[in-house]
Amino acid sequence: MLGFATRRLAVSLLLVWVVATLVFLVIHLIPGDPAELLLSQGGVAPDPAAVEELRERLGLNAPLLAQYGAYLSGLLRGDFGLSLTDEHAVAEEIALRLPRTLELVGMAGFLAVLFGLPLGLLAALRAGRLTDRILSGVAGLALSVPVFVIGTLVVLVLAQQLRLVPAGGYVPLARDPLRHIGLLLMPAGTIAVSLAAVVLRVTRASVLEVLEREHVRAAQARGVAPRHILRRHVVRNALTPVVTVVALHLGSLLGGTVLVEFVFNWPGLSGYLVRAVEARDYPEVMGIVLVVSALFVLLNLVVDLLYAVIDPRVRQG
Asked: pLDDT by residue (tens digit) across 56-112?
């Protein structure tokens, strides 16, 4: 297991380096002078002296290899540079906002698995019956409704009409834990709706496939108790595709919570990225993209390790 984990960690570190290099090259290969783009206002050409000063401050006058070396050196120190708009440290702003987005995505994943996994199992065990048809229909409806529509309906009905919950916002956990959780559940639940539907469908299909395997049929023929078969032979073997789907969707949600954070006024990383792109703040954009990419790689590493725990045969690959 240790050797398997070491190999996967080495591959993950290599992927992070490749992503960091690609981000650097993409930013520096964008047509036009970044300094001129930043200083251009209303189509008016900026002062050449100001452009030259900004290029010097950004290190754009140095050779590309020197810029790349300084970039990698800063990353190793956890330094993403300074924002071009207000000159604050990009790493500090990311460190402030990233936990909020991770908390939102993590809670959404927890809720999706909490409801999707048992409902998918129930649908598989009642395959072809009324329960299965109802659950499959609800899952199809949940997948067809865009997340921003669900969020808007939640705010309109629960917050404005029934006044059961606040319309949105953010309160630090240390200041008011109950209010923090209450504000978190609405956006997390909105994200979890479609993800729970996916988990339900994948769980149902995976369980049905496992139930048709020979060793399960042999256990049934020997008269083994259904609960024992379900716990020991079915659920464990059916978890692998579920873990894959949840991990891939959580990874995409890291950079895809923009609409939900906007609807519920949740100050996470996605809104910060939108603002950075609009302001053409290259250090901010590079820092956010790299952090999100590194988290996606880390998530895949965790999935690989979970595979090895669930199915020991994976370690031999």
From this structure: 777 777 787 888 888 888 888 888 888 877 778 888 888 988 898 888 888 998 999
Predicted structure pTM score: 0.76
198: which 2 tokens? Answer: 């996916």
